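New here. Your pick:
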Amino acid sequence: MSNNTMNRTALIFGATGAVGKQVLKSVLKDGTYTKVITVGRRSVELEDSVPQDKLVQKTIDFENLDAHRQDFKDVNDVYCCLGTTRGAAGSAEKFIKFDQQYVLNSAKIIAQENKVDENKLAPVHYLYCSTMGSNKDSVFLYPKTKGQTEEALGEAGFEKVSIFHPAFLEPVEPRKPFRLVETVVFAVYNPINRLFGLSYVTPVDTVGVAMHKVAEDASIKPTDPKNIKKSTIGSLVSHFTNSEIHTIGGAPK
C-alpha cells in the first residue's frame, strides 16, 4: 500500500450491515491501522478467526450525536456503510432519516472534530457506499436520496471523499431478517450474470475490499477523469463505478 498508515485510525459506520461487516473484516485482517473503531446502535459479532486486538466498538445514539463527539476525534479514514430500504425503514420519512440524515449529521461532526485549522478542510478520507444509478434529480426515492447524500458529502468539510456505486448487492452471510424476494432474484439472476460475464451482481465482500484498498492506496483512482472532481469547498471527490469495484475488489467478472 502506498499510503503511510502508521498510527492511523479507521472509523466504520454500519459495521453490522452486509457491506460494513466486510469492510471491518478486511481492515482487521489485512489493514495496517493501529486502531479500528466501529460506531453504531449495537456491537458487531465476529468469528474468532478475525483479529480483534485493534478493534474498539462504540454504541451510539444517532438521535443525540453531539453526545458522542469524543468518539469521532483523531480519525483518518471513515468508512460509511449506513443504509436501509424504504420497506425495512417503514416509511419514506424514516428511510431518509436513517439513510441520509444520520450519514450527513455524523459526517458534519467528524469534519468539525478533526480539523487542525479552522480555515482548512479536515485531513480525513471519507468513503461512502452508495449505489449504482444514484441521481439527486431522480423522481424515485432511493436513487434520489443517495444522490443528494453524495453531493452533500462533498461539501461536508473533508479533504478527500470517495464514493462507491455497487450494483445489486449479494450478501455472503444470511440476511436477518430473511429476505425471500432477494433470495429468489439471486437464484434466477446469478447464473445469467455469470454466463454472460455481467457485473450487475456485486458480492458485498468485493465492495468491502475495494473500499479498504482505495483508503490505503492513494494511487487507486477512477479510470475516467470525469469521475474525479473538486467540490465547491475544495474537497477531492472520486466516484468509483460498479465495474471498478469489481476490478479493485478482485471479484471475478
Q: What stands out?
A: Confidence is low (pLDDT under 50) at residues 1-5. Strands lie at 9-13, 35-40, 55-59, 77-80, 122-129, 158-164, 168-170, 201-203, 228-230, 236-240. The helical segments are 18-30, 86-89, 92-113, 141-153, 180-195, 204-216, 242-249. The longest strand covers residues 122-129.
